[in-house]
Amino acid sequence: MAPVLILMGSQSDWPVMQHAAQMLKDLGVEWRAEVVSAHRTPDLLKTTMEQAEQDGVPVVIAGAGGAAHLPGMLAAFTAIPVLGVPVPSKQLKGLDSLLSIVQMPKGVAVGTLAVGPAGAANAGLLAAQIIGSFDANVRQRVHAFREQQREKVMNGPKLELPES
Amino acid sequence: MAPVLILMGSQSDWPVMQHAAQMLKDLGVEWRAEVVSAHRTPDLLKTTMEQAEQDGVPVVIAGAGGAAHLPGMLAAFTAIPVLGVPVPSKQLKGLDSLLSIVQMPKGVAVGTLAVGPAGAANAGLLAAQIIGSFDANVRQRVHAFREQQREKVMNGPKLELPES
Amino acid sequence: MAPVLILMGSQSDWPVMQHAAQMLKDLGVEWRAEVVSAHRTPDLLKTTMEQAEQDGVPVVIAGAGGAAHLPGMLAAFTAIPVLGVPVPSKQLKGLDSLLSIVQMPKGVAVGTLAVGPAGAANAGLLAAQIIGSFDANVRQRVHAFREQQREKVMNGPKLELPES
Amino acid sequence: MAPVLILMGSQSDWPVMQHAAQMLKDLGVEWRAEVVSAHRTPDLLKTTMEQAEQDGVPVVIAGAGGAAHLPGMLAAFTAIPVLGVPVPSKQLKGLDSLLSIVQMPKGVAVGTLAVGPAGAANAGLLAAQIIGSFDANVRQRVHAFREQQREKVMNGPKLELPES
Amino acid sequence: MAPVLILMGSQSDWPVMQHAAQMLKDLGVEWRAEVVSAHRTPDLLKTTMEQAEQDGVPVVIAGAGGAAHLPGMLAAFTAIPVLGVPVPSKQLKGLDSLLSIVQMPKGVAVGTLAVGPAGAANAGLLAAQIIGSFDANVRQRVHAFREQQREKVMNGPKLELPES
Amino acid sequence: MAPVLILMGSQSDWPVMQHAAQMLKDLGVEWRAEVVSAHRTPDLLKTTMEQAEQDGVPVVIAGAGGAAHLPGMLAAFTAIPVLGVPVPSKQLKGLDSLLSIVQMPKGVAVGTLAVGPAGAANAGLLAAQIIGSFDANVRQRVHAFREQQREKVMNGPKLELPES
Amino acid sequence: MAPVLILMGSQSDWPVMQHAAQMLKDLGVEWRAEVVSAHRTPDLLKTTMEQAEQDGVPVVIAGAGGAAHLPGMLAAFTAIPVLGVPVPSKQLKGLDSLLSIVQMPKGVAVGTLAVGPAGAANAGLLAAQIIGSFDANVRQRVHAFREQQREKVMNGPKLELPES
Amino acid sequence: MAPVLILMGSQSDWPVMQHAAQMLKDLGVEWRAEVVSAHRTPDLLKTTMEQAEQDGVPVVIAGAGGAAHLPGMLAAFTAIPVLGVPVPSKQLKGLDSLLSIVQMPKGVAVGTLAVGPAGAANAGLLAAQIIGSFDANVRQRVHAFREQQREKVMNGPKLELPES
């Protein structure tokens, strides 16, 4: 199977989007990351998605901010499932990014995650879960990750008021 | 493969959520729909998801409105990918539903679609795309659906001003 | 000079977008309207804009709703100025359409008008003003339209309380 | 009577939630604080609430951020009154936390306080007021706290413009 | 024990607030409802709350819309726990009501419920839960109500697509 | 004539509210500032306003943040015109303060200014304008202030790009 | 004294703005209403305000919707106090009108009332209160109006649940 | 042809608005920048626009923040196309600026760009595109700018996870 493809609208989105890559790496899933801008390299949208289908990419993760058109435009050019990550915008704090990604019209879908790094990490997790629906090893690693999370919660320090 | 599982918080969500079922049916994907309320039947969350994993359900679609906890809580109990549909709320028009579903913390992911029927239909479409990553027949039907959509746009009537 | 090109994401946007056509007609500017969907006919974006540049289209007006990607994607494929009209969405009342159109990143611009019919009419007006910067006849008609508006305000009926 | 139970979705919520503990301490009400994550330890929700009912916990205070499901899910598993504190989220400043906690559907209630430390402190205060409805000593301490607040306002420094 | 006191800013709030009364009645808890306007009868705020404390009212439920000051002002005059219900406003759909009630400063608390009838019903439920913390009969009825809700979900009709 | 009365909910509002005092001072209008909390000293609302009417206070300026009830509650106790200043809140940036102050129901009015220091300064200005409607000297000073503002704009430095 | 001047951006704002006129009439204050559009008759802004100052108009009330520039622009041309009424807009429900009116920069002030008819009525009331600061008869009528409101609340019907 | 005219409400808007000037300079289009305040120098609006029409200014760019009336008021006084830039406001982050500029009523149009520096740069770009519709040299430079942007994306560094 080809690696999960992580695309983003700008080099400057990488500090957010690398959380998707890190999660995939932690879950033992291959990934590849590239910058493809819906607005600055619009002719690459189609060719990138055609190549991805030929390569057998199982999931595309796309992040963008502001009037974030990348996830929806990629989804328009492919039948591969596309997950969208709203990258926080400077002024409107990612509310614009979120609405631009999630409010897709009927017929072209983007599975949207939370604004920012948590959403990027969860895009990696959801991609692994998707692969895990058809790959028992990956599912097993998702279960193990969940168990780790659970234990971290269980073993946290005692909550006490600071001495006054 | 087991049918896609469509869950919703209330019987009253079905007029929205049936758009997911209809899309799956149109794409030749089996589905099953049930009411499971995060708040009124919380004990069913775990058992429903355990059963779904045993059955081999490939994708769960969950819809809820207001303080919409169902998709996130289902995701907490399973490694199956969960897609969330924000059902419009009466007062705040689904902005509450959207934020309650999409803003999940790192570690438990919900792939969120648009508010309302378009989002429900797209949840069905995205579920089919996920299955299509591993099933060439389903992918082929997604491609055919896209082609139909394209042709409907191309063959629309001429746009003219109403006679004054 | 080629007609102003009015594009919209869906046939269902025409009741809003025809206000642009009507305004252009009232100001004596040629127009042509077509449906081009960013999501359902993404391959038409580039060819439509290339043809428009060859034809000498002076301004493109584009309307769309929800995650409204059409105006920005058209702008990505052309140097013709693009004006965007946020079509009201059912649930979020066009706030999503507005943010998806106006919050473009640096490097690709969309001149955005108000949500709904007033914005569509003003897109027609602004297109005429743009042409009017280089065509004294059109500018003259804009001035005349302004004068008519002014007179309508000046000659309105007396404001009185309803008899109780 | 058992201590008021303060629960939160993450260790990182404690700097906010400790304001609830401090207020309870100041009002002479016993408390106990623990991390229980709706998403990472969902199986603990039911058992924690069953134990709380057996112990005779009079009020549960729960804080969480983002898609904040903890207060509502605890409320789903118990008849103990649950007070919810929206912990501020990084991007959307707690508007998501607030709506996720307060907009509960009919049948499962969460008494929601303000976003952030003020809300946490007031959750402690309201818990004490609830206990005070049935315990004259606690009510007396609430009255005394109010009187202190009043005096602090009355005895503030004179308001003057800074010398220019 | 005195009845739960249901107060509202205007006669016109009763269609919303009666859902609180109905819920209390269904749970076998006494209630009394009155109109007290923070703005039109501000001198009644203090006397009403002093009387309520003397009467032994265990919980006050207060509903108001727009710049909804009633719940917070009642809370300022009493140590009885106050629950607030944001009544939907005509233009801003209750977002103003919600923020005006929930965003109380540290030192005076209002336990806020959802906007509209669901919130009113839940205010009744939460009041019963509060009383139930000290009255085993009422708690028992809350548990029974929960069980009924659960069964209604379990026994809903089968979800099927409408015949096309 | 008695000084304009500037009231605020908390000592911590003074850095914002002193802009009202400064503007009044600049316009030669007497002022007096005090802390009166709607929530912590609710019994002072009525007496403060009764005293103000007796003293002949011409305008009251009131600032508060979050669930900002002070301006509206003062207005409920007096026929003196009340101007409201939304003090920025930490989490919601004063949107809560604004809606809590401006969305008053019919029958009790607050003339609301912008969020933050600009709004406070303008409250001082508007108070002076109100007095100026009946005092030619004050009006004259408002005109002079306007002229100064105009000249400052006219005499600004030339706008140039920074050398690159 | 000259009548209070009620201005609005469009004939279509009169159904909202007449509530200001009605309130003034009820309080025995003279008024005059006219349409002056900031955008369609911008040259009238200055002359209208100059005339108003010459006539001795004590207060200007201005209503507008959407990008509501009328109140602020009138205020820019006069030292008469200006009260602004946000007229509800079709799509964004008056949130745009409210922010366009209230968020004035330091140096030009508009005392803003609530969105819609309640705000218009309160603009009339506040204008009367302003006049009442200098006219004991008008103040007396404001007090009487308040008393009427109080009595209407006190004498409302008993609140009862509908028979089931 | 006369230079593009860049106007702004305050000297303090220049750090944002200079991005428009820089873009125009980069695209070889002449520009001139001035401060004209809708509120502090309202009498200059008309004369500035009359002069601009006489000079043959092809496009006006106007930036303002908060209750941003400048772009709309300039548009009211001219038939030259006006582009609006919402300058970020301190408290509401430019949402007020955006709505105050974009939501113009039918009959007076402002082509609105994104909030902040990106919007200012794009206003410069759109102005160049408008001129480019009638000037092949400028259009050529827009195409070249687009090509540069494209190449910058294509030649970005490889995206890699930081070494852990």
UniProtKB/TrEMBL annotation, chains A, B, C, D, E, F, G, H:
Substrate binds at residues 10, 13, 40. GO terms for biological process: 'de novo' IMP biosynthetic process. One of its GO terms (molecular function) is lyase activity. It catalyses: 5-carboxyamino-1-(5-phospho-D-ribosyl)imidazole + H(+) = 5-amino-1-(5-phospho-D-ribosyl)imidazole-4-carboxylate. Its EC number is 5.4.99.18. Pathway: Purine metabolism; IMP biosynthesis via de novo pathway; 5-amino-1-(5-phospho-D-ribosyl)imidazole-4-carboxylate from 5-amino-1-(5-phospho-D-ribosyl)imidazole (N5-CAIR route): step 2/2. It holds the Pfam family AIRC. Transmembrane segments: none annotated. Residues 2-153 form the PurE domain. It is an enzyme of class 5 (isomerase). Keywords: Isomerase, Lyase, Purine biosynthesis. It comes from the Bacteria. Catalyzes the conversion of N5-carboxyaminoimidazole ribonucleotide (N5-CAIR) to 4-carboxy-5-aminoimidazole ribonucleotide (CAIR). NCBIfam families: purE. Belongs to the AIR carboxylase family. Class I subfamily. PANTHER family: PHOSPHORIBOSYLAMINOIMIDAZOLE CARBOXYLASE (PTHR23046:SF2), PHOSPHORIBOSYLAMINOIMIDAZOLE CARBOXYLASE CATALYTIC SUBUNIT (PTHR23046). This is N5-carboxyaminoimidazole ribonucleotide mutase. The gene is purE.
